[in-house]
Amino acid sequence: MTEPMVSDEQELIRQYILFGILFRAVMADLGQMRIVPLKFSYQMMFDELSRWAERQHHQLRRILRQRGCTVVSSRRQGHMYVVHYRQRGYVREAIYTIEVLRAECQELVHLWTRYEQRGENKQ
Amino acid sequence: MSNANKRIVFLIDMQSFYASIEKGANPELRNKPIVVAGDPERRSGVVLAACPIAKSYGVVAAEALWQAQQKCRQLVVVRPRMEMYIRISMQITRIFEAFTDKVEPYSIDEQFLDVTGSVHLFGDPLQMAAQIRQRVWMETGINCRVGIGENKVLAKMACDNFAKKREEGVFWLKRETLADTLWKLPIEKLFGVGSRMKRHFHRMGVYQIGQLADMRPAILTRHWGVNGEVLWRTAHGIDDSPVALDSYDSQKGIGHHMTLPRDYHTAAEIKVVLLELCEEVCRRARKKELMGSVLSVGCRGADLAAGTGFGRQMKLTEQTNDAMTLYEAACFLFDRHWQETPVRSIGVNLGQLVPDNVVQLNLFTDNHKRRSLAQAMDDIRTRYGQDAILRAASVLEAGQAKERARKIGGHYK
């Protein structure tokens, strides 16, 4: 059984949301870490990851805008993350599962680590 | 019937629902064979859902966990999280409501949609089905399959017999083509035919759905009464039932059933569970502001063997939703019909429900005091959890209330 075909815009919206959550979550984690006394400072690493996610987030926003797609609102509703976006004049809704978003963000962190090891993020 | 009057009904089924949710929430499990299963230490190790990779090893739902582990050595066992599954099922309902206002949940992982009025907004039914599959996949990580028909029965059979086996995950079962599609399938593939009914049909020389469709309905009615006619109508794809939003609003009974972690041998042990069940049934009845006047008690014997145990009912002297009144009646039924054989599962049901705002006054019992006590206990449970207040009997070794408080429908929250 094959998985359903997904339109480019839907996938771009999802990626945009994921990077948006990631860069904010990393900064929030950094804030938490500052409270705890540690032997070393990990701020640079966290800053780098957050900046990478933010750059990706803005890049995706540009691509979406070029395709006539803008996110109107995004907010957490209980255990769901509800996004409203305007696509070619129509306002559409996407309702994401929080657990899945968290897992996908974790995957992006792994992706960033792999890029870092290969030095690809320096470009 | 002209095409213009035909309805378009979807039955959407989630593939390996529980297992897909677990894989979506934990990427490390994505390429591994996983099953969602109960707790093996409490002998509740039954496979609730298996992912497609596990199924490729021959693991099937509802089999014992140890059997599944023998078929697949690398099997990863995940404990169920029922609260999350219910939540995601409701989230999927909300996604469906963006396509039509007529959505009827059929089970936790299957829902009917009547899209007759909105299909023109999304193209044709096949395009609409593809869009629904895309959204569910993107937003929850679950792959779903869509059966399409002009009524609920056709949509259900389209999904179970065809859509699930197709690459594209969508199938439209039309009444005009039943002879080439549904009627060629074996009789057990007909909705409503189980293993016992299959044996009956085989004895009658009926092996294919087409043979059943060719029979006169009167013959089937003679054998199975109204159910026989329903089967004939199902084989012809006839079903007038609407996709109703309030299918489950009218309730005929409130029941609770419990499979015990081991065989219970003594009446004292079994009655502890009986009391807990009565308590739970009455709590739900009070929550819905209902009382019942018919009590049913059912027991099944050791290792759930068929033919053991009993199922009996009795009319109560007056309607009630008081746990102790129900318990006394349940004990009466139990003492009368239990043959001192080991019991592995037990259930209590309260039927003939009426609103609880009319009470028969009684000179000899203080019903008002009982109602106030029950109300206070309900309030404590609502506020602090199911096991915040228990009867002393539940603390005994036989008691299950504390363990059940951690579960939904017998599975971990």
Automatic annotation (TrEMBL), chain A:
InterPro entries: YhjD-like. This is Uncharacterized protein.
Automatic annotation (TrEMBL), chain B:
Its main location: cytoplasm. Its EC number is 2.7.7.7. The active site is at residue 110. It catalyses: DNA(n) + a 2'-deoxyribonucleoside 5'-triphosphate = DNA(n+1) + diphosphate. One of its GO terms (cellular component) is cytosol. Keywords: Cytoplasm, DNA damage, DNA repair, DNA replication, DNA-binding, DNA-directed DNA polymerase, Magnesium, Metal-binding, Mutator protein, Nucleotidyltransferase, Transferase. It is found in: Cytoplasm. One of its GO terms (biological process) is DNA-templated DNA replication. The record marks 18 as: Substrate discrimination. Its cofactor is Mg(2+). Belongs to the DNA polymerase type-Y family. Monomer. Poorly processive, error-prone DNA polymerase involved in untargeted mutagenesis. Copies undamaged DNA at stalled replication forks, which arise in vivo from mismatched or misaligned primer ends. These misaligned primers can be extended by PolIV. Exhibits no 3'-5' exonuclease (proofreading) activity. May be involved in translesional synthesis, in conjunction with the beta clamp from PolIII. NCBIfam families: PRK03103.1. This is DNA polymerase IV. The lineage of its organism: Bacteria, Bacillati, Bacillota, Bacilli, Bacillales. The gene is polYB.
